[in-house]
Amino acid sequence: MTVTTSYINLKTELPGPKSKELLDRKEEHVPRGPFNTSPAFIEEGDGAIITDVDGNTLIDFAGAIGSLNAGHCPPKVVDAVKKQVEKYIHPCFHVAMYEPYVNLAEKLNQITPGAFKKKTFFLNSGAEAVENAVKIARKYTGRRGVVSFDRGYHGRTMMTMSLTSKVKPYKNGFGPFATDTYKVRHPYYYRKPEGMTDDQLDDYLLKQIDDFFLGEVPPEDIAAFILEPIQGEGGFIVPSTYFMQEIQRICNKHGILLIADEVQAGFGRTGKMFASEHFGLEPDLITMSKSIAAGFPISAVTGRAEVMEAPNPGEIGGTYGGSPIGCVAALEVINMIEEEGLNERAVEIGNMVKDHFNRLSEKTDVIGDVRGLGAMVAMEMVQGGESKEPNKELAGKIIAECNRRGVVILGAGLYSNVIRILCPLVITDDQLNEALQVIEEVVLDTVEQ
């Protein structure tokens, strides 16, 4: 397929000369641990377009790992931040309080799912939000155990690594991990046992939770279940409404709190403000970060007021938590989502991506599954033919080549064989179609090699 580009403009190979120079400096001064997907160094970002230091323009399908639902440098956010910086930068809410903190807490209490009184406080990252949600759940319930799900991802701190399922690269060699953390199984309908229906898989896994309570830890010792409404790093796996509501029912039955990790799925990505809404969930605690503030570092924990009141003064918080800059940016992002129809736009984007990937799957047998919700869409690469054997090598080659051809893209999945789409929701149809054409060309070219 020949692709005529209009937004991708490659003046040099990627990485270009200036990026190569910066890569050399990076390798000398930065450890290898922090990974990079694109070989280019960015100079500017606007909406869904990146310009690198060599003047190449690229289409961003990664969105800073889902942090840029509102796009690069949304003007209203930039203006709000400029105004805030001119007033004060960071007096620390624990020392000198400020109104943007309260304004954002009030807004999140209003828009998060759950028909009950809520309270909110702020931190810096998604991992910190999860860590503190666990602290609050333990304090409120007086219990120690926390249950997460296989393939789930919750962060890189000691507690969140313990809750995360994938060993490499997230956990390997970093143990011992936090005690009183447990895992149960999450549906993976594409890989269910042969002859089993989706409904049968749900019932089987739910029955295993009963066995887990008998064989591992009794429910009266469990403070919380934590799950992503849609698994992100796990491969964009969407559970059924039945499964999710049954998890909520189990929690309610046993006095266990339900924590919804909305860090990657929240703020319009799935076509609703929060992915939990698709399943009719009313989580006791919700963790948020990434796209909350168009890339400014801030995270939140919102929950039932009586649960959030469990910690005493000074037991939760942090010096930089809820920075005024992050708060004003987040308020503008929420306004954008609500006023500019970004939830509806996410549905349109998702339909376009799924349609394209499904048509592509008719041209090659290495796409085993196309799935997702709203603009949180992925395709799973396999060996082909009748085999569902994961094809990590092929996925890696496709991702690397897409990045070299000007589409910034990421992988995911327990088997590292999933290609995921996290483009900004402000992307235009022309930009979206151009990037999808490049992906198609790369897939077909790579398969033919």
Task: Give a structural overview.
This is (S)-3-amino-2-methylpropionate transaminase. Pfam families: Aminotran_3. Its cofactor is pyridoxal 5'-phosphate. This protein is an alpha/beta fold and 449 residues long. Helices cover 38% and strands 17% of the residues. The chain has helices at 17-29, 63-66, 75-87, 99-111, 126-141, 158-163, 198-215, 241-254, 305-308, 324-339, 342-361, 392-404, 429-448; strands at residues 42-46, 49-52, 57-60, 118-123, 145-149, 181-184, 222-227, 257-261, 285-288, 299-304, 367-373, 376-384, 387-390, 407-408, 410-412, 418-421. The strands form three sheets. A seven-stranded mixed β-sheet has the order 4-10-9-8-7-5-6, sandwiched between helices. Strands 11, 12, 13, 15 and 16 form a five-stranded antiparallel β-sheet that branches. Helix 12 (392-404) crosses helix 13 (429-448).
Count helical runs. 13
Largest beta sheet: what is the strand line-up?
4-10-9-8-7-5-6
Q: Give the topology string: H per helix, E per strand.
A: HEEEHHHEHEHEHEHEEEHHHEEEHEEEH
Low-confidence segments? none
Residues in helix, %: 25-40%
Task: Give the radius of gyration.
Answer: 22 Å
Q: So what's the overall shape?
A: globular
CATH fold group of the largest domain: Aspartate Aminotransferase, domain 2
Query: Which structural class should the secondary elements be placed in?
Result: alpha/beta
**Which CATH architecture of the largest domain would you pick?**
3-Layer(aba) Sandwich
Q: CATH superfamily name of the largest domain? A: Type I PLP-dependent aspartate aminotransferase-like (Major domain)
**Overall pLDDT score:** 96
Strand content: 15-25%
* Biggest sheet layout: 7 strands, mixed
The number of distinct β-strands equals: 16
Enzyme class: transferase
GO molecular function, one term: (S)-3-amino-2-methylpropionate transaminase activity
EC number: 2.6.1.19, 2.6.1.22
Catalytic activity: (S)-3-amino-2-methylpropanoate + 2-oxoglutarate = 2-methyl-3-oxopropanoate + L-glutamate; 4-aminobutanoate + 2-oxoglutarate = succinate semialdehyde + L-glutamate
